[in-house]
Amino acid sequence: MKKIIFLAFIATALFVSSCGKDDDNGGGNTSLTGDWYLHTIYNAPDGYGSRWTNPNNCAQKTYWSISDKKIKHEWYYSKGSECKYTPIYFDYTATNGVFDITIANDSPNGNKGGTGSIKYEIKGKELILRFKNNQQQNEIQVLRKKGVDYSSLDPFVGYWQMTKATVGKTEAIVKEGECLNGEVVASSFGFTLYLNFPEQNGQCKKTINTYEWVKEGNKYYDVTDPQNKEELAFVFSENNTKLSYSTPSDNGLVTIYLTKVK
Question: 5 — phi, psi (to 5°)?
Answer without folding.
Answer: -55, -35
